[in-house]
Amino acid sequence: MKSAKGLWILLVPLAGFGLWSMLASPRALLGIDPGPLGMFALVASTVAALLLLSRTPRENLDRASPAEWKAWLGVGFMLAGVLYFLSRIPLFAAGDWRDPHAGAVARNLVLLLVVWTVLSSVLAARWKGRVQEDERDRDIEASAVGWGRGALVSCVVGIAVLLGFSPPARLQWANHFMVANLLVFALMWGWLVEYAATALMYLRDRRGAGS
Q1: According to DSSP H, which parts of 88-175 are helical?
Q2: What are the pLDDT digits (tens) for 170-209?
Q3: Which residues have a Cβ under 8 Å from the Cβ of 96 and sit 6 or more positions away?
Q4: Which domain holds residue 142?
Q5: Within a 13 Å sphere around the CA of 46, how many CA atoms are in the beta-carbon half?
Q6: Count of domains in the chain?
């Protein structure tokens, strides 16, 4: 148990370094481009955290459901993606896939979505038959999925309205590259809201049970 706690402590600064290098974008760190290194650190820390979580017995998770732990990890991962996108919007408006910097950012965003989708599927398979869901878990999951779907639909509708009702003179920024990345952002936003709703509902439920 102590070794597991030690691993969690090590994963926090690793994830923090990954997020810092993605958002701050320093040009060089000890002569090395930290961009790819930061992406690797963020993905590696998330993979390690999910694997550690999948091997931890439920009774050792501080009374929290594995779904709640997964939700908190999802919040951190998707929040990193959303912040990364928002910090790179000027690149999307001014460039396209042929721009090495804009192309790298777009590939990183798609990679984040792919990695999280694969990790979630793998984690679900590892927990199958080991983690028993109760009625509370199913109710929270259903409510959170509704919140996430609503956020995704609202974001897509907002993009459609913006593009459809804005004068052409004001849509110089809306090239095909920007629109493609806005759709990726919509997926990340939907997942972020879903995981945040899941985590907050578990937190509220646990506090209500303890009072």
Answers
A1: 89-94, 100-127, 135-165
A2: 888 888 888 888 998 999 999 999 999 999 998 888 777 6
A3: 102, 103, 175, 176, 177
A4: 2-210
A5: 30
A6: 1
